[in-house]
Amino acid sequence: RTEREQAALGYSERGAAIQAELLRHGASRVEFIEAVNGRALVRAQPERWAHRMHTDEVADLSHAEGAIGCFLSHYTAHRRAQSLRLQTYLVLEDDAVFRPHLGERFRQMLLQLPAHWDMLYLGYNTYFRPSHDCVRARKRSPCDAEANLRLLCRAKGGLIDAHAIIFHARAWRWLLPLLAKIEASSTPLMPYDLELRSFIERNGSTAAYAYAALPTPMIVQNKTLASDIYVDGMYAPDSLARGSRS
Asked: Glycosyl transferase family domain spans which residues (predicted)?
């Protein structure tokens, strides 16, 4: 389906479509997490939630209410994965769109993952530039066919957006403490994807073994869907905070 055709579907229909797609690509189970309504939280408990969300780039975060809901929704998904003792799991936001002919590229990419990895970004923003944001790979001969088939790289920064990331349970050692600060009543927060990016850039690529799909994202965001996170339309939509399903 095109993005506009997908946007016309109800949440239950889109959920069924994404479930079928995931099972077709080998997922052993698919579970939907009810998203947190950040706007309702801020209105109900302004003393706890108002003015906590910021970024390292924009002083006035106009979409803070939605970003709080998004953060809590992802935190809920990770705690659920830990309770199920999953070794690997893919977290998708509800506006994720699979690019055509994904299957074979996905299987080949998984074969290139090293033994130790924490997260694999299947989708990300165009701010990520592999030539600048990837750890420099060992030089290979120009005749080496493997060099021309590199489908992922270890990232040292620049990754924005979190609509499609595969996690390994090893990531919990740093990921859950990083996200748990939202449980405090006054600790400042950045939006979820910026918290991940900041941790990688601040602590080095060996603290969090983050990888990104190459040469382009495998899963993109449906920009035709409405958004309560970026209400001014300046950014890519993300409907996690609308009380929809993620």
From this structure: 13-121
Amino acid at the residue 82: Q
Mapping DSSP onto H, E and C, the string for 145-212 reads HHHHHCCEEEECCCCCCCCEEEEEHHHHHHHHHHHHHHHCCCCCECCHHHHHHHHHHHHCCCCCCEEE
Angle at which helix 192-203 crosses helix 172-180, to 10 degrees, equals 130
**Mean pLDDT, the chain, integer:** 80
Percent of the chain past pLDDT 90, that is, above it, reads 41
Q: Is the pLDDT of residue 232 over 70?
A: no
User: Residue 194's pLDDT band (boundaries 50, 70, 90)?
Assistant: very high
Domain locations along the chain = 3-242
Cα 153 → chain centroid: 17
Q: Is the pTM of this model over 0.85?
A: no
Angle made by CA atoms 81, 196, 168, in degrees to the nearest 5: 35
Phi, psi of 62 (to 5 degrees): -70, -20
Cα–Cα dist 79/134, whole Å: 29
